[in-house]
Amino acid sequence: MAEHTAPPDDGPAPTMVHTHEAMLFTSEAPLVLASGELLEEVEVAYETYGTLNEQASNAVFICHALTGDAHAAGTNEAGVAGWWHTMIGPGKPIDTDRWFVVSANLLGGCRGTTGPRSVNPNTGQRYGLDFPLLDMSDFVTVHLALGRFLGIHRWAGVVGGSLGGMQVLEWSLRHPETLDRGIIIAASSRLTAQNIGFSAVGRSAIMRDPNFAGGQFPDAQGPDTGLSTARMMAHITYLSEDAFEEKFGRSAQYPGQARGFGVDFAVESYLEHQGNKFLTRFDALSYLYLTRVMDYFDPFARDNALAALRKNPVDFLVVSFDSDWRFSTAHSRRIVRALEHAQLPVSFREIKSVWGHDSFLLDIPEYHDTVLAFLGREALLGVPR
């Protein structure tokens, strides 16, 4: 790994935060992927909140979901709040007056970390579909490298929701000696056929867009129709039926308008807005690559999957939401059963919420109190175990 000088952290009370970049792997020390392929240059975008103590024992890592990025908390230069600002900050469940919090854009992403739209140093051209397929363990390898770059070799906690929770599980299974606590929220250890099907339709919409151009589309003319359609469909799965009814019902978007095939209902306008907004912050190729990682994730199917964790136990909190039908409580219970079968310490909580899968992003008192209580345990107060 290349040597770098880390920038100062963003202070104990993140109001204005900045995204930093670090070149963690180079041609002299490339990243070896789970597939055996190499990435000769890997740059990672990340943010930090709070202050790392002298023992480097109060660090918490945030693993983001499918379309997240490094900007998890505080407010950036553009005045945009972090995607998990409800959870992270002074006095919040992940209290930045106590914890040094690190959030990074994951490998294959499109918000500052190396991904398929990055330039291949060997060709001078963007990777496109020549970017290697990734594995969940590749995300964790890069997370660990970022920790070493920041001087952190053991994490007080690793936290994530949805795809982020899957990263926490993979991290815990493969490198349990590097963390004390794992918080897995609204996640899965193995996608169902239905979930794989949702992602397949989204990828198909992108790849069948006439502007996909074999993955080598220019910035000014990408597969916008396909990507926005993928986002619209995915967004339907992120909310419960009750949430859609509460927000929209059958309200007309333009009362009195003649019937047609345009935007007649309020829910149609909402989905169209979500699809269009997505185009300003996400890339079609990252969507393909990251959803495919989720499809193949099945860690408990590996031989001796829990062997390392048994030798180095991690304390777990697993959280689900009763209205989440994308990653239902059954997914969380499967994780809990596997951990309990290995006689590992695990707490489980199903939270009541009308908002479906998106609940993990929201300010729900019972949910936040659960995370706060778990992180308040003595082992996470900077006391070495």
Molecular structure report:
Helix 1 (136-149) crosses helix 2, helix 3 (193-207) runs antiparallel to helix 7 and helix 4 (224-238) packs across helix 6 (266-278). The two termini are 28 Å apart. The longest helix has 15 residues, at 193-207. The strands form three sheets. An eight-stranded mixed sheet has the order 1-4-8-5-9-10-11-12, sandwiched between helices. The protein has a two-stranded antiparallel ribbon with strand order 2-3. It has a two-stranded parallel sheet with strand order 6-7. It has two domains: 20-191 and 296-380, Rossmann fold; 194-294, Rna Polymerase Sigma Factor, Chain: A. It has 385 residues and is of the alpha/beta class. The chain is globular. The protein is 31% helix and 15% strand. The chain has helices at residues 136-149, 163-174, 193-207, 224-238, 241-247, 266-278, 284-296, 307-311, 329-341, 365-375; strands at 20-25, 31-32, 38-39, 42-49, 59-63, 88-89, 94-95, 100-104, 155-161, 179-185, 315-321, 346-351.
Layout of strands and helices, then pairs:
Elements: E1 20-25, E2 31-32, E3 38-39, E4 42-49, E5 59-63, E6 88-89, E7 94-95, E8 100-104, H1 136-149, E9 155-161, H2 163-174, E10 179-185, H3 193-207, H4 224-238, H5 241-247, H6 266-278, H7 284-296, H8 307-311, E11 315-321, H9 329-341, E12 346-351, H10 365-375
Parallel strand pairs: 5-8, 5-9, 6-7, 9-10, 10-11, 11-12
Antiparallel strand pairs: 1-4, 2-3, 4-8
